[in-house]
Amino acid sequence: MKIIVTGGTGQLGRAFAALRDGYDDQIFCLSSRELDVTNPYQVNSLFNQLQPDAVIHAGAYTAVDKAETNADEAFRVNVVGTRNIAAACLSHDSKLVYISTDYVFDGKHGRPYTEFDQPNPLNVYGKSKLEGEKIAARICHQLFIVRTSWLYGEGHNFVRTILKMARERDFLTIVNDQTGTPTYSIDLARAIMSLVDTCEFGTYHMSNKGQCTWYEFAKEILRLAGLDAEVKPITTAEFALIASRPRYSVLRNYMLELTGGDCFRSWQEALADYITTINKKI
């Protein structure tokens, strides 16, 4: 199978690049410089050249706070760009995996969200990703929508930020009233590769098991790394973020449970693997 991965320099794109040698598939991880998804001519030209069997559309505008004042760009990339990819997939009979987010929910349920819960995003980023889901579904009949949460992996992320801060400071303040599930990009990429090999199209939630707050996540990062910086819990209001966040955005991998089993491991086990990987590179 020949697979294009958009957003090739993002955390998920890098995970696919890292896993390439373990698959028989040809996987082309393309950065936004190599493929501008908002340019339909460039998209069509690439599809004509590569003739992909599947596209994993991980490229997106992901700056949650900046999107509040740059909504046009967020919608241009996340909706128009997705339309272009979906239309090219339709023309070339390619499967499409659209990567979405827990931020399509408002966080008011207080229980893990399944694929059958009604989205209601609180911020521009979440709204643009939900509209991306909708436009992909209107165009492409061979579609997997994959929602994930609190992603980390190779690249800039919360884990690396906490490690850096803990080595520079004795005292950290971390939000303790937002709950979600940290998800390791390698685990997500492997699950997507298993899914794309099927024709079981639909919407899937994919995240590691369990839940925590950002404060609890930070505490576990420091414990696994053997760092002893003091961590103080604060509220979202105290952190003064521009964009509203869902207070509870835990995803339940319900469709995986129904169709073949949820093989994701706990977030703590995945995080331990990631910390080990980072330490090997130091």
Task: List key phrases describing it.
alpha/beta, two-stranded parallel sheet, 282 residues, 10 helices, Rossmann fold, 6-stranded parallel beta sheet, 41% helix
In short:
The chain is an alpha/beta fold. The chain has ten helices and twelve strands.
Portion of residues in helices? 40-55%
In total, how many domains does the architecture comprise? 1
CATH architecture: 3-Layer(aba) Sandwich
Strand content: 15-25%
Low-confidence stretches: none
Q: How confident overall, as mean pLDDT?
A: 94
Overall outline? globular
Secondary-structure-based class equals alpha/beta
Order of helices and strands: EHEHEHEHEEHEEEHEEHEHHH
How many angstroms does the end-to-end distance come to?
35 Å
Number of helices: 10
Largest sheet: 6 strands, parallel
Spatial arrangement of strands, main beta sheet: 2-1-3-4-5-10
CATH class: Alpha Beta
Count the strands? 12
In CATH, the topology is named Rossmann fold
- CATH superfamily descriptor: NAD(P)-binding Rossmann-like Domain
- Rounded to an integer, what's the Rg over CA atoms? 18 Å
Structural account:
This protein has 282 residues and is α/β, with parallel strands linked by helices. It has a single domain, classed as Rossmann fold, CATH 3.40.50.720. Helix content is 41%, strand content 17%. The chain has 10 helices and 12 strands. It has helices spanning 11-19, 40-50, 71-91, 124-139, 158-168, 185-196, 214-225, 236-239, 254-259, 267-281, and strands spanning 2-6, 26-30, 54-57, 95-101, 143-148, 151-152, 171-175, 179-180, 183-184, 202-205, 212-213, 230-234. A 6-stranded parallel beta sheet has the order 2-1-3-4-5-10, sandwiched between helices. β1, α1 and β2 form a beta-alpha-beta unit. α3 runs parallel beside α4. The longest helix is centred in the first third of the chain and has 21 residues, at 71-91. The protein is globular. The model has no long low-confidence stretch (mean pLDDT 94).
